[in-house]
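Aim 2 progress update. The chain analyzed this quarter is reproduced below.
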Amino acid sequence: MKKDNYSDIINLPHYVSKKRPQMSIEQRSAQFAPFSALTGYEDEIEEAGREFVKKMDEK
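Predicted structure tokens:
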């Protein structure tokens, strides 16, 4: 017997912990905020661009 995906749980009430307070919207959004995995990478790219432009100007 084939069931639809999640048909057994789709109408259940949203779980709310009794032990932990709910996160604020700011706290939740901070979890998904962009971050720089490669510290200094953007600076290196900018420097490489400046050096390239400088070389092109010298020609």
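Residues 33 and 49 are 27 Å apart (CA to CA). The radius of gyration is 25 Å. These observations will guide the mutagenesis experiments scheduled for the next reporting period.
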